[in-house]
Amino acid sequence: MTITKSVTDILNGSITAIKSVIPLQVNVKQPSLLKEPFDQKDMAVLIGMTGDVRGRIIIDAATESFQAIGSSMFGMPLEGDMLESFAGELGNMIAGNLSTKLSDLDYNMDITPPTVIVGNSKMYGLKDGLILPIQIETVGDLSIILVVEK
What we know:
Blueprint: H1 3-21, E1 26-28, E2 32-33, E3 38-40, E4 43-51, E5 55-61, H2 63-74, H3 80-103, E6 109-111, E7 115-118, E8 121-123, E9 130-136, E10 140-148
Antiparallel strand pairs: 1-9, 2-9, 3-8, 4-5, 4-6, 4-7, 5-10, 9-10
Helix pairs in contact: 1-3
């Protein structure tokens, strides 16, 4: 399988996974190449991909966006440790759904446990990554960063 096909399948699978997991209107914008370093400003979830597809998925959004998604899914506001736990679980749901979608295309992919990153940070080592900007109704913006190792 070529790297181009793998990246296309992961990108399309990510879009399908997000639309399956988030119960709101999702508007996916044009992906672009990531320029290093990636400035993570508020809250993000990092999940590794292993198996036939190796790399990382980062879900990056403002704290308020994670709060609004959590509130829409659970009907109550989330803060502090509960919000951070939810952000990790949201990452698990999206990456797990992606893994299932890719298994339908004969990929063998597993995911690592999520790492929740809170606060400002610069991330390096994301060379050749793609940013998939997403706008979610009543929530705001969310970005999916996909880095596939060759």
